[in-house]
Every structure is written in structure tokens, then in C-alpha cells.
């Protein structure tokens, strides 16, 4: 899938260069670039309490914002209202050089 998303040929090797690792409950986020810094990527793993990875999401050349979705009481009616709290945002390594599409990941 990475070759399709990045346009790399089968002969080209791709070396991941992680820049940061963050964890939010059962979600682990790793972001980085390739060595020449021409491709930006984010991996989102869902991990069980036993440390088993149950889901992997992979994003290439995409700015990612992670939000925690919950409910809060409305002060006027005591009806739970949806609430989204941003907890993490991509730190784009070449923000001045590239404009990337944005995506919101709800956890």
C-alpha cells in the first residue's frame, strides 16, 4: 500500500525515520519521515492491555489531528451532548514547503 500512496517503485527501498511516539489509552501514534524527508507518515496502532496490536492505520503525506470523543452534560437540559477534545496534532517537518490534506481521527 505504501508504494501506491508514495509512488515509489518496487526497486526503491523505504526507510522509516520516526520523529515522535505518543500514547493515548489504547492508541499509540508514531510519526516521522523517510530519510530524504520527502514523505511524511503517521502510524496509529490500537494495542490491548497485554501489548498485542489489534489494528494499524497508516497515513502518508497527511496531516492528522486526534480527538477524544465523549459526552458532556448540557447545563440547561442535562442531556448528554457530544464533545470532541483535540489531544494530538501532527508536527509537520516541512510545513513551509508542503501543503498536506488534513484528517481527524476520533478515539
Automatic annotation (TrEMBL):
InterPro entries xrefs: NTF2-like_dom_sf, Wound-induced_1/12_sub, Wun1-like
Source domain of life: Eukaryota
PANTHER family: OS07G0691300 PROTEIN, WOUND-INDUCED PROTEIN 1
Listed name of the protein: Wound-induced protein 1-like
Source organism of the structure: Phoenix dactylifera (Date palm)
Gene giving rise to this polypeptide: LOC103721512
